[in-house]
Amino acid sequence: MKKLALIFALCAFTVAGAQASVLMPQLNVTKVIQDKIEIAPEDLPQAIKDTIVENDETKDLTISNAYQLTDAEGNVTYKVKFGMEEESITKEYDAEGNEIVEE
Fold first, then answer.
1. Choosing a second label site near 17 at 20 to 30 A (CA), which of 28, 40, 43, 56?
2. From residue 33, how far is each of 26, 70, 73, 77 by CA, in Å?
3. Which Gene3D superfamilies does the UniProt entry name for this protein (predicted)?
């Protein structure tokens, strides 16, 4: 009788675990970069340069690297790295100078 109760309990936990994994789907969103080209900071679109100068967080920082990114759908964005090593921050902008914030 104890074996039967143990088997029943194991089956119940197995079914409950399987249902829990079905109820919690995982969402993996990946941005596929087709092309990444390093560009000179002065070659950034003027709208991005204006946004950088107007932003209190970035206006006094030096741009160490700038990249033009093109995804698989042909959308162009720009990744800008400010500062060096551990003290660096990276921001991404669209061509109109709007900062793209990862959620």
1. 28
2. 22, 6, 9, 10
3. 3.10.450.360
